[in-house]
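Input sequence (120 aa), recorded before submission:
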Amino acid sequence: MPDTIRIDPASKVPPYEQIRAAVANAAARGDMPVGAKLPTVRALAERLSVAVNTVARAYRELEQAGVVETRGRSGTFVAANGDAQRAEAVAAARAYADAVARLGLAPGEALDIVAAALRR
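Predicted structure, token format:
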């Protein structure tokens, strides 16, 4: 697994969300292909210097979203379903970026619009 999971202690984003986003984004980009095994919860918590529960929460949310699947004692793996979901999200984001450029909106304004839409 690439060293793509990092925690920014200065960030206002909670550590579990930083982990969740890093794994989801890596799966969407193909940096973590379908079937890639994630570190154990304890191993990743130790590597990132966070609580075990922090990593466990991120893994639970990733599993609920279909990005990863847990196979009992075998571990946690990037799921095939997650790739399709992330690919659809990436395609939608690209289409939105194209529309924003066509409309001449500033990037900051476009991000504000997305943030507002996600809050509803």
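Checked by second reader. The chain has one domain: 15-119.
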